[in-house]
Amino acid sequence: GGIITQTPKFLIGQEGQKLTLKCQQNFNHDTMYWYRQDSGKGLRLIYYSITENDLQKGDLSEGYDASREKKSSFSLTVTSAQKNEMAVFLCASSIQGERLFFGHGTKLSVL
Amino acid sequence: GDSVTQTEGQVALSEEDFLTIHCNYSASGYPTLFWYVQYPGEGPQLLFRASRDKEKGSSRGFEATYDKGTTSFHLRKASVQESDSAVYYCALSEGNAGAKLTFGGGTRLTVRP
Fold first, then answer.
1. A44-80 residue pLDDT tens
2. Strands B107-112 and B10-14
3. Cβ separation of A40 and B105 shorter than 8 Å?
4. DSSP string spanning B14-60?
5. How many angstroms separate the CA atoms of A79 and A46, rounded?
6. SS3 of B82, please?
7. Looking at the DSSP assignment, which residues form a beta bridge with residue A36?
8. Which of B9, B45, B97 minimises the CB distance to A40?
9. Distance from the A16 Cα atom to the nearest Cα atom in chain B, whole angstroms
């Protein structure tokens, strides 16, 4: 079996700060995803990548950048953290959208 | 664009009660439908999926039937247990979009012993 590792588990930032979240997978999957999870709003897709160096915008890409430097890693940057923002960011990988495997999430709090 | 609607945001039941969580979808093509379950402190994990009209997916006593006519994929379980307490997500994947998975708003199930 494989595993998705997200770092850090908890991230506390200041308003206006640029913050980077990292994700590693050892499934050897082609496709990786970043979702944002907010209570009552479900999971909303920020970015996904179908192969190394590919980037596809999701429905919530504004305010975020992403980078897929190699097959096993996918990073997400919050370009300017918003005051009182609180959310969980979930990374996932899959083979072409057939069954996603998720990490345990990074919980973001902005002071 | 594609969308998934879960009617119930929260459901509270007692053990051995019957569960129904409603899921309706909107998609331009012929999507694959999924149910995912998320336990506290973990990421969502696949419960089961269905890709054809009238196909039934099932796992751990949960089941749902793909209904193209009513664009629905309702989750049911005949007798819930306290250990079923979790958040349940309905999702769809459009075949021609390949990789993109669209999720519903989630339903938090709490089962009292």
1. 999 999 999 999 999 999 999 999 989 999 999 999 9
2. parallel
3. yes
4. ETT--EEE-EEEE-SS--EEEEEEE-TTS--EEEEEE-STT-EEEET
5. 13
6. helix
7. A44, A89
8. B9
9. 28
Q: What is the pLDDT along chain B (113 residues), one digit of tens a residue?
A: 889 999 999 999 999 999 999 999 999 888 999 999 999 989 999 999 999 999 999 999 999 999 999 999 999 999 999 999 999 999 999 865 557 889 999 999 999 99
Higher-pLDDT residue of A1 and A24 is: A24
Place of tokens 């089941």: B63
Are residues B101 and A4, on separate chains, in Cβ contact within 8 Å? no
Q: Which two tokens stand for residue B113?
A: 């012993």
Q: Which residues of B touch A105 (CB under 8 A)?
A: 43
Q: Which residues of B touch A45 (CB under 8 A)?
A: 100-102
- Residues of chain B with Cβ-Cβ distance to A102 below 8 Å are 42-45
Q: Radius of gyration (Cα) for chain B, nearest Å?
A: 14
Share of chain A above pLDDT 90, in %: 83
* Three-state secondary structure call for residue A13: strand
Which residues pair with residue B64 across a beta bridge? B57
Tokens of A54: 């590919």
Residue with tokens 């054809």: B52
pLDDT at A95: 82
Residues composing chain B: 113
Q: How far is CA A63 from CA B49, B65, B81, in A?
A: 32, 38, 41
